[in-house]
Predict the 3D structure of the following.
Amino acid sequence: MNKPFEIVGDEAPANEGSSDRLDEAARAAWLHFVAGHTQQRVADALGISRQSAQRLISLAVEAKLVRIEVVHPIARCMALAEELRRLLKLRSCTVVPSDPSSMSGTLGVAEEVAAQIERLLRLEAPLILGIGTGRTLSAAASKVPPMNCPQHRIVACVGSTSIEGWATFHDVVTKLANTVRAPHYPMPVPVMANSAEERQVLLDQKPVRKVIDLARRADVTFLGIGHLQEGATLFEDGFVTANELKALRKAGAVGEMVGWSFDADGNFITGLTNDRVVSIPPERDANARVAGVAKGDRKVPAILGAIRGRLINELVTDERTAEQLLAARR
């Protein structure tokens, strides 16, 4: 059974003191770190002063008599996050534990995103929070507690309706803004226009230009990452047809963010549905904080593509997906 602390006396350098002194230090360290005694109880057990006990414990650490090992499951997630951050050159990465028994596509990641959004909105300094769409972000918005944040602005990075005019299933901005009482700026356009010409007409509208300008100045942006395999959100929610989805895959598309389809290297697909997307394309700006939010086996190619193309520089995912990302990276 693993212990969080292990005494390893054979690693101590010879010049750290006499053998007897190191024995005393090891004994004090065991009482403190393994037995869990306070420094005063260590002192009482060894018949020395509290200050002496403190010096012995410090000596044990300095002499490398103590090996610290965190055995909580979260430690594995932190190690995966750091490895992903380093290998993929991310600005930050958060990995949450996976629940092997759960079939949810949002569990864990939605809660973490909600916690990150809450921390941002509790800041006193005004900020602009950009929000994309997707099931995970929608679930996250439902988990943010009621707050009063008039100093912040929440802006949509994607339209709020379909071509036919019905509201999207995941209007994250309105849901979140109503909960935290912050000024919010939905994008008053469909996710996709009927044609490239119609798209340009919509983008030329003054209210749309204002929202786009605000979104591009966001301090932090959260974007869902979608796959383009069977069951893709773009298709399930009625934004593309089955034939269009096949055409995107044939053109090399592996994922999408706010409707923009991209390939394994993060390059936007030329033509096809991208000619009709009205939302703001993810910015390749190293100074902007853009967090991709996704988990699941089918999303691994899409996540890697978004990272390779620098469409995102932060990532929130789960343990299983992180392991698959590292395996694919190698």
About this structure: Residues 290 and 312 are 5 Å apart (CA to CA). The two ends are 31 Å apart (CA to CA). The first strand starts at residue 5 and ends at 7.
